[in-house]
Amino acid sequence: MSKRGYHHGNLRQALVEAALVLIREKSPQGFTLTEAARAAGVTPAAVYRHFEGREDLIAECARQGFVIFADLMEHAYESGQPSALASLSATGRAYLAFARKFPGHYMAMFESGLSLNADPDLCTVANRASAVLERAARELSRHIAEPKRPPVAMVSAHIWAMSHGVVELYTRGAPGARVPFPAEDLLETGIGIYLRGLGLIPADA
Question: 11, 81, 103, 172 - which has most CB atoms within 10 Å?
Answer without folding.
Answer: 11
